[in-house]
């Protein structure tokens, strides 16, 4: 049975098959223990494209884009490209009416060459290079987010005479939120944004307003990632509205935009909490309207930046088992990928729910560690996973919720090569990003 999407959230509706609740909504059971996503067999994908391989359900991505558009009518929804970007992804996002936020000249290049409208692109980054800023100005991006005082003069000088670049100021509102200390970006003790409490944000705003080639159009904040509660966003709204009121009081400027970033939490394993985007939208809009009314401000245009929540649940990673090793009470299942194609378990301790696909097993489930092939003891893809006790070399394992921060964070460790990305839709599969090859390694190494 296909797990349906809830109409407003894009999340899988609860159903009798809890094992598939974190899989793409199109996931269905096939004979012989196989699964299909959007009508395409996972074993067929592995046989045709090899492993490791990332599968991306185009229909799921589009459905999640539309769910955000429904939840936030009249607002600007920007897809956070850092979660995953290729030209096809940029096309899907544009087609569904979303904007795009990018963090580098490389992401901007992919977006621009896909035909994405530059005025719907926002450039982020705590340390933008001269090349990043030059590309943004050359392509004509709609907004650039100022993240440090040094960017102000550098950007103002780079803007061509006779024109103005629209900018926002990224504020660190002093709010701790997120699933792990390394992905909490709204506090004052990390590298992102300008502090409210020490006056850095106020000072940057004053400097920008003195630059004739920069047009300050709003404030930006991003609290962190994997946030599953609405409350931190409400606190952020209150602090941002307070700063907007202060800007009007001091400078007579009414800022028309407020960007609350993203960080919307998703479930990686059945039963984990998710952020209800319908509840988020309703309560944030109410808080914003109430705060602006109390301050005598017009309600600014709201901007949000979901990334993981759009693409994460649409992805599946496939691996072949290379070895099974039992040491004392522990069983290690080694696969042909690892931390080079998914560093998140090593970085943040993320836990996934891998599944045996391609054959039926009557063996009891047993606790195992799914380990990668790299020369690190921390190269673990799924610790504490449960798989049939008879898993053996040659078996196919599938890891759901693999659409975000896999390929975008992939490395060249051990020169294993980054996996390909395959899109599935309506029973068809097509290659979006090819596998990195031995020829690629040779061609980049020019020093001999």
N-to-C terminal Cα separation, in Å?
Answer: 57 Å
Oligomer: single chain
Q: What share of residues is helical?
A: 25-40%
Structural class: alpha/beta
Helices, by number, come to 12
Unreliable stretches (pLDDT < 50, length at least 5) are: 1-17, 182-187
Shape designation: globular
Characterize the main sheet. 9 strands, mixed
Strand content: 15-25%
By DSSP, the count of extended strands is: 21
Average of per-residue pLDDT values? 91
Q: Radius of gyration, Cα only, in angstroms? A: 23 Å
Structure description:
There is one protein chain. The protein is of the alpha/beta class. Helices cover about 30% and strands about 25% of the residues. The chain is built from 12 helices and 21 strands. The chain has helices spanning about 40-50, 60-70, 85-95, 105-115, 130-140, 150-160, 200-210, 230-250, 275-295, 310, 345-350, 440-445, and strands at about 30, 35, 40, 55, 75-80, 100, 120-125, 145, 165-170, 195, 215-220, 255-260, 300-305, 315-325, 330-335, 355, 365-370, 380-390, 395-400, 420-425, 430-435. Strands 4, 14, 15, 16, 17, 18, 19, 20 and 21 form a 9-stranded mixed beta sheet that branches. Strands 5-6-7-8-9-11-12-13 form an 8-stranded parallel β-barrel, surrounded by 6 helices. The protein has a 3-stranded antiparallel beta sheet with strand order 1-2-3. β12 (about 255-260), α9 (about 275-295) and β13 (about 300-305) form a beta-alpha-beta unit. The longest helix is centred in the middle third of the chain and has 21 residues, at about 230-250.
């Amino acid at each position: 049975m296909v797990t349906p999407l809830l109409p407003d959230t894009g999340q899988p509706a609860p159903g009798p098959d809890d094992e598939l609740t974190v899989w793409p909504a199109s996931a269905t059971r096939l004979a012989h223990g196989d699964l299909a996503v959007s009508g395409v067999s996972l074993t067929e994908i592995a046989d045709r494209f090899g492993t490791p391989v990332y599968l991306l359900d185009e229909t799921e991505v589009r459905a999640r884009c539309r769910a955000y558009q429904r939840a936030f009518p009249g607002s600007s929804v920007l897809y956070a490209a850092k979660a995953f970007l290729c030209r096809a992804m940029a096309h899907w996002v544009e087609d569904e009416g979303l904007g795009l936020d990018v963090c580098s000249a490389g992401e901007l290049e992919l977006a621009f060459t896909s035909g994405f409208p530059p005025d719907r692109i926002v450039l982020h980054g705590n340390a933008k290079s001269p090349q990043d800023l030059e590309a943004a100005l050359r392509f004509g991006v709609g907004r650039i987010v100022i993240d440090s005082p040094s960017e102000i003069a550098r950007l103002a000088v780079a803007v061509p005479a006779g024109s103005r670049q629209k900018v926002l100021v990224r504020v660190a509102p002093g709010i701790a939120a997120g699933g792990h200390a390394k992905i909490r970006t709204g506090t004052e003790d990390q590298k992102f944004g300008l502090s409210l409490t020490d006056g850095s944000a106020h000072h940057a705003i004053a400097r920008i307003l003195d630059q004739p080639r920069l047009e300050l159009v709003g404030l930006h904040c991003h609290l962190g990632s994997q946030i599953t509660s609405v409350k931190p966003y409400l606190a952020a709204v209150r602090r941002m509205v307070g700063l907007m009121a202060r800007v009007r009081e001091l400078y007579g400027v009414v800022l028309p935009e407020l960007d609350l970033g993203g960080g919307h939490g998703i479930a990686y394993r059945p039963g984990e909490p998710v952020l209800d985007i319908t509840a988020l939208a309703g309560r944030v809009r109410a808080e914003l309207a109430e705060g602006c009314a109390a301050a005598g401000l017009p309600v600014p245009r709201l901007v949000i930046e979901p990334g993981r929540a759009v693409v994460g649940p649409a992805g599946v990673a496939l691996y072949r088992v290379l070895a099974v090793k039992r040491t004392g009470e522990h069983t290690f299942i080694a696969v042909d990928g690892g931390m080079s194609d998914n560093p998140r378990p090593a970085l943040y301790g993320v836990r996934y729910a891998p599944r045996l696909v391609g054959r039926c097993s009557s063996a009891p489930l047993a606790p195992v560690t799914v380990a990668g092939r790299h020369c690190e003891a921390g190269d673990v893809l799924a610790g504490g996973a449960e798989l049939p006790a008879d898993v053996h070399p040659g078996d196919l394992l599938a890891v759901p919720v693999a659409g975000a921060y896999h390929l975008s964070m992939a490395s060249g460790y051990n020169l294993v090569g980054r996996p390909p990305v395959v899109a599935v839709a309506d029973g068809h599969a097509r290659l979006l990003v090819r596998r990195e090859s031995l020829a690629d390694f040779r061609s980049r190494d020019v020093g001999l």
